[in-house]
Each structure stands twice: as structure tokens, then as C-alpha cells.
Design goal:
Helices cover 40% and strands 16% of the residues. α3 packs parallel to α5, α8 runs antiparallel to α9 and α9 runs parallel beside α10. The chain has one domain: TIM Barrel (Alpha-Beta Barrel). It is globular and about 60 Å long. It is an alpha/beta fold and 462 residues long. The chain has 15 helices and 17 strands. The structure holds 6-O-phosphono-beta-D-glucopyranose. The site of 6-O-phosphono-beta-D-glucopyranose has 14 residues, from loops. Pfam families: Glyco_hydro_1.
């Protein structure tokens, strides 16, 4: 069977500024939330490793770009760190930051790798955290101004922009499940943050268009297709619909259709946590939908109706329980389910319910603990599990494209092993190994060699 993709298909991988660059403090970079949080509570971070060095991309970007080329990537998504580009609330530019991002863009382009830039990957500068972060509408305005600066500085060479990476994770991580700063559990604050994140994204899109931005602008959403245990049971179906509303549609609908689903607004009102939206903000959201979508897909969500009444502070779990079943295929290491058909189902949803918007799989990946155990005699990580993981997702993506879905690329998370927030270097995701004990020495894994052949041939046959 042949799995051939179009000639201009994006073969690449994604990472982010805060997870790869390191170099804080240094070269005028301001503090962002993870720099701060790590200093406050290093014990929360796996192995006590914070964001100061990460994969040392700041110094090694040329070597990384060379290896990205070697593994066949024709595109790379990373993010600009707001805190590296802009020093303070007054908008003072950090010239060293401008120089760094200029050099990275030029280096990638010189090697035929398209840079796709995201403007925010969980890394709010502390000078805005101090003002309430995205609970404060001013932060949304500041984000739009920062975005405008980026378009002005780099717009000539960057053709695809993304406003936010996984905004729902900022909300749930910081304001519900305590995985991100400020690590509180408050549904009302969470709803307000979500609203301002959407507003910030739409305002950035507006800036892009106002400036006649060449190219396209999108947003990256992590979509978790939601399946209920007993589809014949109405309550079970409702639990899945509610989880889908809260975790997927809350950004998908306003970003792509320009409006919130009525059912979501009603739910938030019923709970007394619906933010007070200004009419002109809703108009900005309505008028500034994205050109394309980045979909991060790792695992689905399996839910069922609650078996016992919900107690405690308001959480999405009031409306469902998650469940596992025997025979469920799990990542042997990260604890996430592997369910490839969901990629196809996402694609069909986007085709049928969201105007067949152009999109790409902007993250998909397999985190593995203690990956050194798979190093073979030649010193190469023999990550056949990752090859299988990528290939099996591509098979479903291919089926979707054959059926008319508008998917233009596949990006693995990540090109190289990188720092993962509180998990630090626990789970390795890259096609390039980063040996942190040996001055971040880089070696291509078996998956990198496979990816090169696949990208060169534009697909594979089985
Ligand atoms: C995505 C994020 O949700 O998942 C990345 O965009 C993150 O920033 C990746 O690193 C993998 O998750 P984790 O928790 O295994 O590092």
C-alpha cells in the first residue's frame, strides 16, 4: 500500500523558545513565568532541572539547523520568547533578542527549512504576570502590540505565524490543575483567562491584517477527541459533549468561526463564571478568525457520566469522569493512550464542521523515559517505537487527505530532546538525542534517519 503525500507537504517538527533556547539570565532576556517559578520552587521540577539551559539552542542553533536539514525537515516551528524580545511593559526592545531571532530565521532559510513562528508558548513575561497575567485585559492588548512588533521585525521572511500554542493548557494548567504558574484552582479566573487569551489571539490577527501581513496567521490548538463509554446512554453522551465544549470548542469555535458555542456560554452562566464580555471585544473576535489551524494531537479523552456526586471547588470533572478500559493501547512510557484513528476523526470534523479550513498536524509525539536504554552498539538510539508511532498516525492522516481533508503537513514533537516544563527532561521526544551530561552533544536517532527517507520520498509504502 502506498502512502504518498503532496509535493508541498510540510515534513517537520516543532519545539518552543522556552523549551529549547536556555540562556537565562543572559543577553538582556527578561524573566518569564517559568524562570520565576523554578526559582521559587525548584523541588516541583523533575530532577530539579529548570529552564536556564534547556537544549542550549541559543548557542547551538546552527548545529541544530544543520541536523534538522540532515533528518529531512523542510519546516520547523518554534516560538519567539516575548521576554527575550521585549524587556519591560513599556515595550523596550532587546536588540540582542532581535539579532538572535534574525539569525535563527536566516539560518533556517539558508538551509531550505521554513521557519513557522508562534508568538506564545506558555511563557508570559513576569512584568505582565505581576499585572495579573491574562486575568487582566491589558495583557491582551500588550500581546497584540508585541505581535505587531514581531510582524514588523520578521514579517518579510516568515510566512506562517501562530498566535498561541494550546491556550486551553494555559488556562487549565495555571488555573485549574496547578501544572503551570500561578498554580491555583479557580474556575471563574480560568474562564476569564480563557476569554482574554482568545481576545489576545484575535487582536494579534487583526494587527497582522492591518499591516497587510504577507503570508498567513493561525493558532495552535491541542484537540482531544472525546469518546464516551456508552454511546447508547444519553447521560454518557452529554458528559462527552460537555468535555468537548470545555476543552476543544472553547477555542476552536471562536478562533475558526468567530463565536462561542451557545451551549458553552449557557454552561458558564449557569455556573456563575461567565466573563463579562464587552461588545467591541466580541466584534474583534468575530471579525478576526484565523487563516489556518495547527492541531496538536497526542491522545483522546475517554469519559463517562459521574458515578458519584461532585464535591469540592468547581472543575470540569463536575460533568464527567475519565475511564480506562482493558486492552487500551498505551504509550509504554508516558502513560498516554495511543489512538491513531483520532487524527482522522479530527480531520473529518474540520472538513465538515469548520469549512474545511487548511490545517496541519503541528504536534504529535512520543515521550519516552530513560531512552538511553535503547542506545545500540553504534551509539544510536534505536527508537523503532517512535517510527511506528509516526507512521501509524500518518496512515490515518493520509486516509483523511484522500477523503478531501485539507491537511498540509505533519510536525513531530520534537526535532530534538527538549525541556518539558515541570517534567524537565523526564520524557524524551526528539529525533535528535541531546546528551545533557556531555555538553548537550547531539546525535541523530534511528527515527531521524527514517524521517529523512520518508520526507525525501514524500511518503512510504507498506
Ligand atoms: C504539548 C506542548 O502539549 O505537549 C509542549 O505544546 C509539551 O510544550 C508537549 O512539551 C509534551 O508534553 P510533556 O508534558 O510530555 O512534556
Amino acid at each position: 500500500m502506498e502512502y504518498q503525500f503532496s509535493k508541498d507537504f510540510l515534513w517537520g517538527a516543532a519545539c518552543s523558545g522556552p523549551q529549547s533556547e536556555g540562556s537565562f539570565p543572559g543577553d538582556g532576556k527578561a524573566e518569564m513565568e517559568w524562570d520565576y517559578w523554578f526559582q521559587q520552587a525548584p523541588e516541583l521540577f523533575y530532577d530539579g532541572v529548570g529552564p536556564a539551559v534547556t537544549s542550549d539552542f541559543y548557542h547551538k542553533y546552527k548545529e541544530y539547523a544543520g541536523l534538522m536539514k540532515e533528518i529531512g525537515m523542510n519546516s520547523y516551528r518554534t516560538s519567539i520568547q516575548w521576554s527575550r524580545l521585549i524587556k519591560d511593559r513599556e515595550g523596550t526592545i532587546n536588540e540582542a533578542g532581535v539579532e538572535f531571532y534574525n539569525s535563527v530565521i536566516d539560518e533556517l532559510l539558508s538551509r531550505g527549512i521554513e521557519p513557522i513562528l508562534c508568538l506564545h508558548h506558555f511563557d508570559l513575561p513576569m512584568y505582565w504576570v505581576e499585572k495579573g497575567g491574562f486575568e487582566n485585559r491589558e495583557t491582551a492588548e500588550a500581546f497584540a502590540a508585541y505581535a505587531a512588533k514581531c510582524f514588523e521585525l520578521f514579517g518579510g521572511r516568515v510566512k506562517r505565524w501562530l498566535t498561541f500554542n494550546e491556550p486551553i493548557v494555559i488556562t487549565e494548567g495555571g488555573y485549574l490543575y496547578k501544572n503551570h504558574y500561578p498554580a491555583v484552582c479557580d474556575a471563574k479566573r480560568a474562564a476569564l483567562v480563557s476569554y482574554h487569551l482568545q481576545l489576545a489571539s484575535s487582536m494579534a490577527v487583526k494587527e497582522f491584517r492591518k499591516r497587510g501581513g504577507k503570508g498567513q496567521i493561525g493558532i495552535v490548538l491541542n484537540l482531544t477527541p472525546t469518546y464516551c463509554k456508552e454511546p447508547e446512554n444519553a447521560e454518557d453522551r452529554r458528559s462527552a459533549e460537555t468535555a468537548d465544549l470545555l476543552f476543544n470548542k472553547s477555542f476552536l469555535d471562536p478562533s475558526l468561526k468567530g463565536e462561542y458555542p451557545n451551549a458553552l456560554v449557557e454552561l458558564l452562566k449557569k455556573e456563575g463564571i461567565c466573563p463579562e464580555a464587552q461588545a467591541e471585544d466580541l466584534e474583534v473576535i468575530r471579525a478576526n478568525t484565523v487563516d489556518f489551524l495547527g492541531v496538536n494531537y497526542y491522545h483522546p479523552r475517554r469519559v463517562t457520566r459521574r458515578s458519584s456526586p461532585f464535591t469540592g471547588p468547581l472543575m470540569p470533572e463536575k460533568y464527567f469522569e475519565e475511564y480506562t478500559y482493558e486492552g487500551q493501547k498505551m504509550n509504554f512510557s508516558r502513560g498516554w493512550e495511543i489512538y491513531e484513528p483520532a487524527v482522522y476523526e479530527i480531520a473529518i470534523q474540520l472538513r465538515d464542521n469548520y469549512g474545511n479550513i487548511p490545517w496541519y498536524l503541528s504536534e504529535n509525539g512520543m515521550g519516552v523515559q530513560n531512552e538511553e536504554q535503547f542506545i545500540g552498539v553504534d551509539g544510536i538510539v534505536e527508537d523503532d517505537y517512535r517510527i511506528e508511532f509516526i507512521r501509524d498516525h500518518l496512515i490515518w492522516l493520509h486516509k483523511a487527505i484522500v477523503e478531501g481533508c485539507n491537511c498540509f503537513g505533519y510536525h513531530l514533537w520534537a526535532p530534538f530532546d527538549c525541556w518539558s516544563w515541570k517534567n524537565a527532561y523526564k520524557n524524551r521526544y526528539g529525533m535528535i538525542r541531546v546528551d545533557r551530561k556531555d555538553n548537550c552533544r547531539l546525535t541523530v536517532k534511528k527515527s531521524g534517519r527514517w524521517f529523512r527517507v520518508t520526507a525525501e520520498q514524500g511518503g512510504f509504502s507498506l
